[in-house]
Amino acid sequence: MERQLKSVRMVFLDMDGTIYHGGTLFPTTLPFLEFLRKRGIGYAFLSNNSSYSTEEYVAKLHRMGIETTAENFYTSTCYTIDFLKRNHPEIKRIHLFGMPCIRPEFTAAGFEFDDETPQAVIVAFHRAFHYDDLCRTAYLLRKGIPGFATHPDVYCPTDQPTWLPDCGAITRCLEVSTNTKLKVLGKPDPGMLREAAARYAVPVEQCLMAGDRLATDIALGQNAGAVTCHILQPGADLVVPENIHPDFQVNNLGELQRIWEHV
Predict the structure, then answer these.
(1) How many C-alpha atoms does 228 have within 13 Å on its Cβ side?
(2) Cα-Cα-Cα-Cα dihedral of 135, 137, 140, 146, to 10°?
(3) Which residues, 6+ apart, have CB-to-CB distance to 163 below 8 Å?
(4) Which CATH number, 3.40.50.1000, 2.40.37.10, 3.40.50.720, 3.30.1390.10, labels domain 85-184?
(5) pLDDT digits over 100-152, tens only?
(6) Are the CB atoms for 227 and 208 separated by under 8 Å?
(7) Which residues are paired to 42 by β-bridges?
(8) What would be the CATH architecture of the domain defined by 2-48+188-261?
(9) CA–centroid distance for 205 within its chain
């Protein structure tokens, strides 16, 4: 099985639960990234969390001691934009149910915001919405405007004494209340990893996907045909999925590094 690592040219890393938890960087993260640099292996951070902009993620990792740029990130927001442009080039006007910080990413991609006559409704992880925002989004979906959700996660991990319902939970609320279905993007949709790999000009078969959630991170890699590494974090999956089998299963990135060093 270790032979699979020989062909890996690009590593995609989930963030919370894989390289850090909340505001705490895992001690194995920086040594692992340095190991990849020395081996000439690329890496990028792949996140479903669409409540932060890429610039905010760059700043967060910088505060943790990881020097990186926007080029090292591919989020579910990025994938939603790529998916729409590739599969629905006719969509130009959107209604966004999401944090204000991600609006510039849609604007930069050529989309316009229209809360009256949009061609599509985009549902992201919104941590600061007013009930009226939810109602407006539901109204547009009920009118028949097609809806797209950035990712299916029903909760977001945190190291604080609270619980964070995520985009998947909001999506289900909207679907039930309007009797409609949204197209759900993000991990584990294999298209997300294929689009990310294409950005770095690496065949997906030469990529490794590492993350703590079997249902999203590992399923993504398995669905796309990449090598997978499950980082064990108790409780990461609310419901443990069947038929998801990672190529490697370790407690942290340090253990993966030690395996790789002997390949």
Answers:
(1) 25
(2) -150
(3) 155
(4) 3.40.50.1000
(5) 999 999 999 999 999 999 999 999 999 999 999 999 999 999 999 999 999 99
(6) yes
(7) 10
(8) 3-Layer(aba) Sandwich (3.40)
(9) 19
